Amino acid sequence: MHSKLPPQPKPLPPKAALFVGALCLAAGLPSLLGGLGLIGIEMAAPPWVVACAGLCFTGAGVAFIVSAWAPKGSIDGALAPDAPAPLRLIEFLAALAVPAGFAGMMTWFFIGDKAHEMAQMLAPLLIVDVVEVERRLRFGVAVASAVCWSMFLVLALHGARKLLCRVRGAGGNDNVETERGRPFDRGDRGDRDRRPRRRNREGG
Q1: pTM, to two decimals
Q2: What phi and psi values does residue 142 have, to the nearest 5 degrees?
Q3: Residues 72-120: pLDDT tens digits?
Q4: Phi, psi of 178, rounded to the nearest 5 degrees
Q5: Which of 11, 101, 118, 152 is most deeply packed, by most CB within 10 A?
């Protein structure tokens, strides 16, 4: 009895991705620009924290729009192998913006006074001492911050490596090239090169 493979996730349709991307940009750009001091908005946190919040939504919006507009190379929504380098750079920076923004906000929550303020609000509801609630909050935020920074570093290193490989002509893949618009494995080329020699040896 053959086991069925789990269904593969499908990317959003282009119109839906554009709609979600526009919503994310509408939610993130005011905070990002306000945090950078380019527009005037009311802020309940330091400007750099507000910019980090806006960066999350802005990066997600750009990623959705790129996925809707760019040519696809596979059913999972990855860019086509011949996608232009500037488009890949935009996708790379948008992917970095989301964990970077979250990491900045989690770090501020950990080192700032928000944990103490939230602990004072939660302690009466949880019937726990304020110090204990604050300790647990800071521990959870520290773990979340470490996860976000780890994701940022992994994405930065992996994405930069792929971009450099493509700039150098490696195409980001050591085993797949393109010949006459069709992907093939390098080993196939070697097999095709060796087959005539074998025939000549047999004929000789």
Answers
A1: 0.65
A2: -65, -40
A3: 644 455 676 677 778 888 888 998 999 999 999 988 888 877 777 777 7
A4: -125, 130
A5: 101
